[in-house]
Amino acid sequence: MKETWSSAPSVSSHSFLITLTLLCIGITTGCGSSGTTPPKFSGNTEVVVLASSTANDQLVQFSVTLKSLTLTSQSGQTVSLLATPASDEFMHLNGHVEPLVTVSVPQGIYTSAAAMVSGAFPACAGQSAGSILMDEALGGLNGVTAAAISPEQPITVTGSAMGLVLDLQVAQTAPFNGGCSNSLTGAVTITPTFSLTPITIAAQPTNSANGKVLGVEGLISSVSANGSGFTASALYSMNEGTIAPAWPVSVSGGTVFQGVGSTSALTVGMPVDMDLAIEPDGSLLATRVAVYDTDTTNLSLAFGPPMAIYPSGSYQAVYPVMDTLEVEQDGQLSSLFGIYSLNRATPHISGQLANLESLPFPATFDLANLVDGQNILFSTHAPVGVFQPLITITLLPQTIDGTVSAISSEGNFTTYTVTLASYDLFPNLAVQPGQTTLLTNPNTVVVYADSNTQMLNSSAVSVGGLFRFYGLVFNDNGTLRMDCAQMNDGVAE
């Protein structure tokens, strides 16, 4: 929060009184001043560094590895926020957050930040002239490079715990315009650019701006013997290597379990979809833990958008281009590239949003209304190959960036008709050779917001405005509809 200092002394014939008055106003203690009192610093604060991104829908993946991240105080003291390099995939964090690391930092005022990036790999997806494209001709950054990183203000580190949001500014980092095409032959110039913003942790966090972390996808790496919690590691993407984050989390009597009854049912290697809250001491509490596939035998996972869905005889097949998404197989990176059959897949819907029954449309997800571009968690227990069966498909929340073209209401919901850019995956993949056309108007999503929707946008939503919407996207008989969990300011298309 920026502090604005102002003074308006009264006119006086006594210059001594004027001088004394100005001195008292300029000093925050003594002279009876009512100015802001600087915080008292004592000891260290647990700082949770949270990865996030600000982006439109041009890229589907952006893996970044940080070699270092530091803060420098007013007195010139430099503090490292990373004990070792750390990496994450930032596009699935567009508009929300994921813990990257927690570090103990000496309390004080820090006036600058610096970062070194050792890897950055953007990727786009789409189709052109009937061909599926996953364009890695965008290139990447393989050498160590200084990042532009600007605190919006001096960062005051105080209290028992706080958050620092490291937000990848995607358009500035990888200036890529347009959709994927066969004509892309040159690499995009990568200029790593971040913002670093402090957040105050609420006693009961409700959104990404005050300590709530939504939709974390991971694999359990250990479970506490007394049932008090577990550790989950992030699913690796193809460019993150083995230094993606891991999260030790606790559970409480208020933790909601979905698909399993309690911590005792969790095992190493089991995939979890979870929501977290940052605690007053900087630790992580799981508020929701969901397991959609409890079998860890020969398990392979991926989450992201399917690229092509084909009807074929008595079953459907899906081409998820899984090697471009978040993939894990037996704890190691694998390449799930190919066509997978859907006829045995059990559909699930993420339990993150609890208002599905109150929506004024049927919020269903099954093999008949699955469409390209939805954010889906896939699981299979078969070897990699053609027409191997998928076991589960789970609809996950996602972020869309678009222009509001109409505002209305329906029941207890405000509805926003949102127009997508042509490069968005929904319109880009809607019509392909050999596919059944499922969407009537693929460049439009009707967004439903109720009293539970977290409104983090800085300006009121109005027709013609550009916003980002995060939630579950359903195909309702050819119309895309989103149950919205959070709204943020939009990013220029």
Features:
OB fold (Dihydrolipoamide Acetyltransferase, E2P), 493 residues, five-stranded mixed beta barrel, mainly beta, disordered N terminus, eleven-stranded mixed sheet
Provide a concise account of the structure shown.
This protein is mainly β and 493 residues long. The protein is built from three helices and 32 strands. The longest helix has 12 residues, at 15-26.
How would you describe this structure to a colleague?
This protein has 493 residues and is mainly beta. It has helices spanning 15-26, 170-173, 425-429; strands at residues 44-54, 61-73, 78-80, 86-89, 98-106, 108-128, 131-135, 145-151, 155-157, 161-169, 193-199, 212-223, 229-234, 246-250, 256-258, 271-278, 284-290, 300-304, 308-312, 315-319, 326-329, 340-341, 346-349, 376-380, 388-389, 392-395, 398-410, 413-420, 444-449, 454-455, 466-476, 479-489. The strands form five sheets. Strands 1, 2, 3, 4, 5, 6, 7, 8, 9, 10 and 11 form an eleven-stranded mixed sheet that branches. A five-stranded mixed β-barrel has the order 12-13-14-17-16. Strands 21-18-24-26-23 form a five-stranded mixed sheet, with no helix packed on it. The two termini are 29 Å apart.
Strand content: 35-45%
Based on CA inertia axes, which overall geometry fits? globular
User: Could you say which structural class the secondary elements and strand pairing correspond to?
Assistant: mainly beta
What percentage of residues falls in helices of 4 or more residues?
under 10%
Q: Gap between N and C termini, in Å?
A: 29 Å
Please report the first level of CATH classification, the CATH class of the largest domain. Answer: Mainly Beta
Count of DSSP strands = 32
